[in-house]
Amino acid sequence: MFPTKLLGALAALTLLSGCAGFGVGYDIENMRNATASGGTPFTQALTDEYRQITLFEADEMYDWQDAGYFAQKGLRASGGETVLPEEISAWHLPADKVGELTDARARLMAALDGGGRENKPMKAAHAQGRFDCWIEQQEENHQPDHIAACRDEFYAAIEALEDKPAPAPAPAPAPAPAPVEAPKPFVLLFDFDSSSVRGGDFQKLDEAVAAASALDDAEFAVTGHADRAGAEDYNIDLSLKRADAVRAALIERGVASDAVSVGGRGEAESAVPTADGVREQANRRVEVIIQ
Predict the structure, then answer these.
(1) pTM above 0.70, yes or no
(2) Which one of 25, 216, 227, 268 has the lowest number of neighbouring Cβ atoms within 10 Å?
(3) Which residues neighbour 21 within 8 Å (Cβ) at sequence distance 6 or greater?
(4) First CA to last CA across the chain, in angstroms?
(5) What residues does each domain of the chain span?
(6) Within the chain, which residues score under 70 in pLDDT?
(7) In terms of DSSP H, where are the helices of the chain?
(8) pLDDT for position 17
(9) In CATH, what number does 186-290 get?
């Protein structure tokens, strides 16, 4: 309890016990029954906040001096006056608590003066009431539960008053484009001892060109093969002729000549293993690989 209030303590007790019509007891009783029909929504809500503090101090703590002090603030609020939160310098506070309370009051005043009274009157009044409750309890400094309750309620109230919107979440990164997989090899079959592309296989080459268009800087690896019928050297030449025929057909379809490489494997790398001299359709082929 602040020392300057001590002079009125005895008088307050006398007035309360004797039902006098003046002084602390009069203020407390008036606050008990006060209504705030005028003023602003903020001062009306603040009246109720100071009523709570007044009646707690008077009826539960028997601290009529502080009850009377806050009754006066409440009565002023009920008359429409914008009463300010308690000044730090008006209270004898523990030295180690002054900094926190000073910061808390500055935060409260910033919220009140920043439109809190007008935009969120109930929350603003509650934050102010809990601050004044905290500073009064902190000065007495002998009821840690009461101090903690007022302090915690203040912080909850000021956060509700500030109610700063959470920052907008960062936009989710765009999903990485699915990698474009190279198409599977296109296989063209050839007649025995022939290097001419079959008529039906030109459609496969059209599909190969279309598939390559979905890739960046696609290239074609064209490899010819032969079965094991005939001489090995002859089949090397035949497999290369088959690859050249396919290369020419690709160039006719708009593929750049330098984007097509050719090779001939002859009888090597047979799709179907056979004995030497055996004809096998599956081995007379050209593989077109897009890369």
Answers:
(1) no
(2) 216
(3) none
(4) 87
(5) 3-162, 186-290
(6) 1-23, 164-167, 180
(7) 9-18, 23-33, 41-55, 64-78, 95-111, 117-119, 121-140, 144-162, 202-212, 232-252
(8) 42
(9) 3.30.1330.60
